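ugh ok fine here u go
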Amino acid sequence: MRYLLAGSSGFLGTALRVDLAAQGHQAARLVRREPATATEYRWDPDAGSLDPSVFDGVDVVVNLCGVGIADRAWTKARRELLRSSRINPTRTLALALAERSAPLPVLIQGSAIGWYGTEPTDVPLTEAAPAAEDFIGELVEDWERAAQPAAQAGVRTVFLRTSPVMDRGGGAFQPMRTAWSLGLATKLGDGSQHMPMIALDDWLRALQWAAETADAQGPYNLTIPQPSTNAEFTDALADALHRPSLFKAPAGLVRLGLGELAEQLVGDIWVVPQRLVEGGFVFTAPDARGVVRAALRRS
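structure:
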């Protein structure tokens, strides 16, 4: 299959390029600079500029554009960048795809588990739950809405509502592994809040499943089917590294230091991948201990 990737230089995009190449797929890239190879195409998503010929012969378009949500405080400027770095590329791709005639590629659109918010719930949330009325919930809702021109034009569109992807090669797991290795394993708050996650291998497999499953469309939660609490994950990683798990960071202190962003860490996010499981996808790391083992095993 021939893939066209947007947002391919980050942690997930790089892992996806390596994985596609290993499986013999072709992967071209959209870049904002002058192309350096024959498989790179320049675009300007902030200006809405994209040559529609880049879709010629493409089977799957994957959009992973967007700056990190949890790696720095949400100042006014950061909030604007969180929105523009996601919505502008998505809208540009969707409008360009909407102008195409058949055959149409599949659009695998990045999204986030932040759709569901951080308020405690009595039951785990599925893809049918409405978007939360907080900053991230509204951002993710607008992000997915930006792809609607493509879906309305008949493009099979899949939204990957991704939870934190765990792997020793990058993302949130890397600094945690370093801290835990030094004996600094720390539960956040009382540790009872649900903590969504997925192993990188399962994320890669789920993306390919979505690309190759003809009736897959709409939102899918990419998170483990056996939800974990923060305390369970903290202990699992400490045990795997043969280190103690002794520390707690009070929720009030985390909120004082990080403001609204803190809710992504100490808030309760109890979500399950109902549609993915019902579609026949089988996780290789279905729980927190499996995720930790998979993350530490990868090179």
